[in-house]
Amino acid sequence: MEVTQVLFNAQSIDGTVRKNAEESLKQFQEQNLPGFLLSLSGELANEEKPIETRKLAGLILKNALDAKEQHRKFELVQRWLSLDATGKSQIKACLLQTLSSPVFDAHSTTSQVIAKVAGIELPQKQWPELIGSLLSNVHQIPAYAKQATLETLGYLCEEVSPDVIDQDQVNKILTAVVQGMSASEGNIDVRLAATRALYNALGFAQANFSNDMERDYIMRVVCEATLSPEVRIRQAAFECLVSISSTYYEKLTPYIQDIFNITSKAVREDEEPVALQAIEFWSSICDEEIDILEEYGGEFTGDSDVPCFYFIKKALPALVPMLLETLLKQEEDQDQDEGAWNIAMAGGTCLGLVAQTVGDDIVPLVVPFVEENITKPDWRQREAATYAFGSILDGPSPENLIPLVNVALTFMLSALTKDPNSHVKDTTAWALGRIFEFLLGSAVDLPIITQANCQQIVTVLLQSMKDTPNVAEKACGALYFLAQGYEGEGEPSPLTPFFQEIVQSLLTVTHREDVGDSRLRTAAYETLNEVVRCSTVETAPLVLQLVPVIMMELHNTLEGQKLSSDEREKQSELQGLLCGCLQVIIQKLGASEPTKYVFMQYADQIMGLFLRVFACRSATVHEEAMLAIGALAYATGADFAKYMPEFYRYLEMGLQNFEEYQVCAVTVGVVGDISRALEEKIVPYCDGIMTQLLKNLSSNQLHRSVKPPIFSCFGDIALAVGEYFEKYLMWAMSALQSAADLSTHIAGDDELVEYTNSLRNGILEAYSGIFQGFKNSPKTQLLIPYAPHILQFLDGIYMEKDMDDMVMKTAIGVLGDLADTLGNHASSMIQQSVSSKDFLNECLSSEDLLVKESAQWAKLAISRAISV
Amino acid sequence: MAPHDNRRPFKRAAISDQQKRRELSLLRQAQNRRDAQQQARCLASSILSLQSAAPESQPEQSDIELETVPEAEQESEAFSKDLDVRQASKLRGPEVRKWFARQLMLPEWMIDVPDRLAQDWYVFARPAGKRCFVVSSNGTTVSRQRNGSILHHFPSALPAGAKIRDGSGSAQSYCILDCIFHELDQTYYVIDMVCWNGYSLYDCTAEFRFYWLNSKLEESGACNAPSHYHKFRFSAVPVYNCDQSGLHAAYTGVVPYAKDGLLFYNKHALYQTGNTPLALVWKDENCSQFVIDTDGKGEIPSQQQVVLELQDDRKLVTSDDPPVLFGCLDGDIIEKSGLHTGNLLRFAIGDGGLSFVDGKLEKADLIYLGKSNRARAFADSYSKGFQLKSL
């Protein structure tokens, strides 16, 4: 096959030609993968070939080795590993040869391909000579080849995990990289490539950072690079410092003073990309110290692996003024730009983190700045003062902040209405939101909101909702937190008298002409949701009145015809907001009998609207509508059966949506709602649902977070349909058993432990539902064969000692359910299990009430099972 | 220039309400799942506690230390909600009266017509007789009156109601029926079903309970004529929808028992112990021979009477929750009669009757008669007073 021509054609502007070329490439790949890869690597290596085809050949090679989707990636890796070794070494030889090509596109693409191959082979202990051959002649080759080699090392470190490469090779890599970075390296591109490579290689340098001399050397080279005349090198060097700050926090003491000098110079004088990284260094130190201090504060006092060196606290007197200076460097119109990120924003963010790190100590350093600037004629100063004040509201104690807030509040309310600058108003509304977010409901005797100022606050916020979209959005946000401050309070909320007015204003905002291009409409609906959630019994009739209003809005979105794809997206977004709002209302009204009763008159119409929302799309299901239907099913109870014939297809569609796994997860939850609502009336739909759920479990395409809820859902269904579950018992139990085997032992990081516990919880909830579902049925004995394994599972997770309270509660409950349902059939098995003794006793003396309650139940059930 | 990977632009919205909605949904679903499980377990725990409370008949031998659930541990709602009839039977004196009084659903007097009467309500003619709980368990059946005193102790064809059944299931099952014992034909008329064969119906609507009652009672053979193992006949009462014809049938229809008013039950109401506005009683001379109080000999006293509870501040209140204040007792009467807080006192309603302003009792002309019968467990309800006035 003449691959050059095909690769040319694959970039043709003529669609037909391009399509044919792509088709033949695909066929080639499918019919003869080794030949295909070899041709491409030959093309890439051949200096006679045009740049375009070499570059594309490299790209296709890369894509044949890696993919974003986990399952596809796995497939590609397996295919590469199964190829004949001779073919592979030919390909690899071509790649190494191309690395020293003078053509930039050729060697730069190649360095990525080599890293991908290394990512597959090194963990398998294959291609052991790679690093040696990359480094063998690094000093003798021309600069462009040196650059390519360093880039390859960088990508390689990104691809493979540190434990794959032995220390000897790590040392060689680091030596080459650090030498390439040093000031003596005359070539800018080489030095830049080396600096970027170090960024990726830092994770490999644990041993080297423990050695004082080596660490000093690396740190010196990095710090020198921050002073390079080339801006890209300075930026890359600061990126290295940021990475070092989190990876080697505990090694920083000797360098922190120098780093402070370097960063503060960069923040004040350097170009923005560099200054941003310099600020990021301190934000990152804050992150570290917040984490460490949080652990100190927790129950593991003093046991933290890493001590806190209080770098921020020590740097405070110099750090805060530096950050306050950055606040004055705002960009015009930064509030209108969603993606904006500049020195002022980074500085404010860092200031907020510093406040969280040091608490009260920051207040006296910031207050003078606020007082000095808040009334200045230059808007930049007023805005910076407000931003600074807003930034420090999370961290210091309420006792310290509330007196300041009480003084500032009147001024801020007046600024929000009267300041001539929109930027200042935006920040003022945001800062008010922060006051409400962090200081309402704090246990202090000094209330911020009183009968006297409540009216004024509400009036000002509602007024600001008529301001420019960005100010109005922040005003909505402030109202959101104001409402949240009175959530679940026993006493009547001071907002109650304004409920109608607030709702009306928010609805008006959603209809603003200019609402389309900003987040404003979303903010207005989200605030409406929170206002409804936090409403009290006095305003329930007003919430009820809102139902037909939102229904009408949703109805209107369904009337539009022949939409462009852009319009359709907007329509779908609006439908999402409205369904979300209805969901909140349904959940609110459904939670108390009298309001539920009145609300139910709308149920048929609302369900009709949701079904129409589904029908707007062909292949996917609207997540928000699905969530809302779950709430509706709960409120409706068994009557929900009448909607099932029409609704079922969308339920199935939701369960099949692997791509948007959130939709799938939400749908699984709704199946649970419907099971509880319909009970045995769900039977006609069970075949379809169970088939799909089992399919989902066995798929490796589905995001793993959906699997635990699927197991819980088995329990919901079993509890609803009782012995009818027999049909699915064998399949469900076998899926549960293999998941149980996998989840008994965990070896991994916190995230994996957390996931495994959620998986255990799902499995256990399934067992509970199945046992309780079969109770008092003649088919109980069908469960007996599964009991030994389940008891083993309980014993297993008990011995592992790493379950959380939630799992503990569910697990001991399962023991009770097993005893309750199987009775004396299981008595000897139960008595032999560790769970029925040590585990049960541990749970009986648990501090957690839910665990204790479950344990008491289990004890009672066991005592009966073994006494009969 | 984009912010650092983990850096959220500080001034952008801090919250994702969509994420919040998802999380709240998950919380609600988890709560509902817990409730459903709890309910399933609760059914069992009521059976279990029946058993564990009878240790003498079941000697326990096991490695695990067995104990009946101590009272203190029953605080958790899951364990205390379902009644433990057997334990309650061991209570004595006022304790037992109080306990049983709390378990029955008590109708209020009908003082106005509820909305959607025709759609949402049932009506049936209340048999005249003694309201009681009939409990069958462990091979025997006991009926207890409102005040907790035992009316009969007998074998019955109810599940677990006699010692003849060999099925192992019957030992674990039990029934609780809300009945009226009709002296004339010696029949228990079942007006509501609280538990059947171990299955709790507390959390079921009246609609379901009545359906269950009609299908299960007949099935069990409890409606058969009395025999050696079935001492009293049980019977369901005809229940009608509250439309025109239903009301007419209940009001005028011929039934095998003497009528004592009409009972109205809201179809959607669960079995709720104590006074509830979702069950109502109506009496007039056409449907009840006891429209007004009669004395022990069936004679109408010259004045209508009402029983009220004395509180420690000398106030006289009804059994309603919250109690309704009917009056205040003179200090000297209390001293002279040696009355204590909590005593139930019988009053006659004098010629002044009861005066109401805006639907609230303003003044009651009460004449103290004496302490009420010792067997009374609680005071009359406000709505009784109200209906007396409207007669």
Automatic annotation (TrEMBL), chain A:
Keyword Protease: no
Gene3D superfamilies according to UniProt: Leucine-rich Repeat Variant
A GO biological process held by the record: protein import into nucleus
Record domain Importin N-terminal: where: 21-101
Annotated compartments: Cytoplasm
Entry coiled-coil feature ranges: none
Keyword Transport in record: yes
UniProt entry keywords in alphabetical sequence: Cytoplasm, Protein transport, Repeat, Transport
Cited InterPro entries: ARM-like, ARM-type_fold, IMB1_TNPO1-like_TPR, Importin-beta_N, Importin_beta
GO CC aspect terms: cytoplasm
Family label: Belongs to the importin beta family. Importin beta-1 subfamily.
PANTHER family: IMPORTIN BETA (PTHR10527)
Protein name per its UniProtKB record: Importin N-terminal domain-containing protein
Organism listed in the record: Gossypium tomentosum
UniProtKB/TrEMBL annotation, chain B:
Annotated stretches, region: Disordered: 1-21
A GO molecular-function descriptor: RNA binding
InterPro entries with a match to the protein in the record: Snurportin-1 (IPR017336), Snurportin1_C (IPR047857)
Subcellular localization, as worded in the UniProt entry: Cytoplasm; Nucleus
A Gene Ontology term for the protein's cellular component: nucleus
Signal peptide: none
Boundaries of every Snurportin-1 m3G cap-binding domain copy: 103-279
Annotated family: Belongs to the snurportin family.
Protein name: Snurportin-1
Organism, scientific name: Gossypium tomentosum
The organism's taxonomic lineage, starting at the top: Eukaryota, Viridiplantae, Streptophyta, Embryophyta, Tracheophyta
